[in-house]
C-alpha cells in the first residue's frame, strides 16, 4: 500500500499568499487580514521554502509575482474556491438544502421558460446537482407515482393529482410542403391523412397507453424526440402533430406546412407542475418551483 500523501503547505499559507498579491503588498494585506506584516512575510517565506520555488519578489515596496508564482496563484485560487464551495455545501445540507434536484419534463413543454428558470436558479443553487429528464405521455404518470422525481411537468393530470398550470400548448398536424397531403385540395379528410405514415414520439411510460396523445394512424414510425421527427418530415416522409412553438420556425422558412383537416385537427393542452411529495420538497425544490412558475407565466 502506498504512503498517503501529506501536504507540506496549509490553506492559510495560500490564503496569505493570495492576499499579498490581491492587495498589492505585505503592508496592505496585513491591514486587510488584521495580521502583522512580519507574520505574513514569514508565512510566504515558509511556503516558498517548502515548495522550493520563488513565488514573489519584492521591488521597492511592492511584491510582484514570478512566472512560477503566476501559475501557482491560479491553481491556489481554484483550491480556495473548492474549499469555499465545500463549506457552503455543508452549510446548505445542514439547513436541509437538497444536494440533488430531479425534474421530469413532458416533451411538449416549451423549453425556453424551463431554461430561463434553470439559469436564474444557478446563482442560488449552492452546489445542488440538477437532473432534467424528458417524459412522453404516460411517462409523466410514472414519474408522479414512482416518487423518483422532486418535480414533474405533465400535460395531463392523473386522477386525484393537483398541479399548477404552466403553459398552453397547441399541437398541429404538419407535413413537408411537397408531401402528397400538402398537394391535395384543402381541407383534407382525416381518413385521407390516416392513410399515410404517422411519425410519433415513443411513450416513455412503463405501460404505454395507445389511446392517449397523438397515436392514431395504423402505420406509425416511432422516434425518441421531436428533432428526429422534424428531420424525417423535412425529407417529405409522413405526417406528425408538432407543438406550435416547435413548428412555427419551420412554417416561417416554408419547409413544413400545417395541414388543413376537415373538422379541425389542432389539439390544445395545458402543462402542469406537479410536486409528487410536497412534504419532502426541500428549499432548493421550492425555490426552483417559484422560478419555474414565474418564467412560465412570463412566457405566456
TrEMBL record:
The keyword Transcription applies. The keyword Repressor does not apply. Keywords: DNA-binding, Transcription, Transcription regulation. It comes from the Bacteria. Residues 10-66 form the HTH lysR-type domain. InterPro entries: LysR_HTH_N, LysR_subst-bd, WH-like_DNA-bd_sf, WH_DNA-bd_sf. Belongs to the LysR transcriptional regulatory family. This is LysR family transcriptional regulator. It comes from Agarivorans gilvus.
Amino acid at each position: 500500500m502506498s504512503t498517503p500523501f501529506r501536504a507540506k503547505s496549509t490553506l492559510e499559507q495560500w490564503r496569505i499568499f493570495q492576499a499579498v498579491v490581491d492587495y498589492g503588498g505585505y503592508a496592505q494585506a496585513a491591514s486587510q487580514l488584521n495580521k502583522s506584516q512580519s507574520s505574513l512575510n514569514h508565512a510566504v517565506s515558509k511556503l516558498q521554502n517548502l515548495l522550493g520555488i520563488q513565488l514573489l519578489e519584492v521591488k521597492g515596496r511592492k511584491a510582484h509575482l514570478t512566472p512560477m508564482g503566476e501559475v501557482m496563484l491560479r491553481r491556489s485560487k481554484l483550491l480556495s474556491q473548492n474549499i469555499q464551495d465545500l463549506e457552503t455545501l455543508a452549510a446548505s445540507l445542514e439547513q436541509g438544502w437538497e444536494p440533488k434536484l430531479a425534474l421530469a419534463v413532458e416533451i411538449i413543454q416549451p423549453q425556453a421558460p424551463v431554461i430561463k428558470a434553470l439559469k436564474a436558479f444557478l446563482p442560488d443553487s449552492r452546489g445542488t446537482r440538477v437532473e432534467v429528464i424528458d417524459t412522453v405521455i404516460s411517462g409523466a404518470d410514472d414519474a408522479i407515482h414512482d416518487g423518483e422525481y422532486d418535480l414533474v411537468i405533465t400535460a395531463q393530470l392523473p386522477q386525484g393529482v393537483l398541479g399548477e398550470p404552466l403553459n398552453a400548448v397547441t399541437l398541429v398536424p404538419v407535413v413537408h410542403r411537397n408531401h402528397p397531403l400538402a398537394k391535395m385540395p384543402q381541407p383534407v379528410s382525416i381518413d385521407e391523412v390516416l392513410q399515410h405514415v404517422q411519425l410519433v414520439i415513443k411513450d416513455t411510460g412503463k405501460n404505454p397507453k395507445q389511446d392517449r396523445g397523438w397515436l392514431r394512424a395504423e402505420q406509425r414510425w416511432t422516434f425518441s424526440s421531436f428533432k428526429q421527427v422534424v428531420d424525417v418530415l423535412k425529407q417529405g416522409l409522413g405526417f406528425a402533430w408538432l407543438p406550435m412553438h416547435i413548428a412555427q420556425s419551420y412554417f416561417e422558412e416554408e419547409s413544413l406546412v400545417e395541414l388543413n383537416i376537415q373538422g379541425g385537427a389542432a389539439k390544445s393542452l395545458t402543462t402542469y407542475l406537479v410536486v409528487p411529495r410536497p412534504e419532502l420538497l426541500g428549499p432548493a425544490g421550492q425555490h426552483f418551483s417559484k422560478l419555474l412558475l414565474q418564467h412560465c407565466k412570463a412566457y405566456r
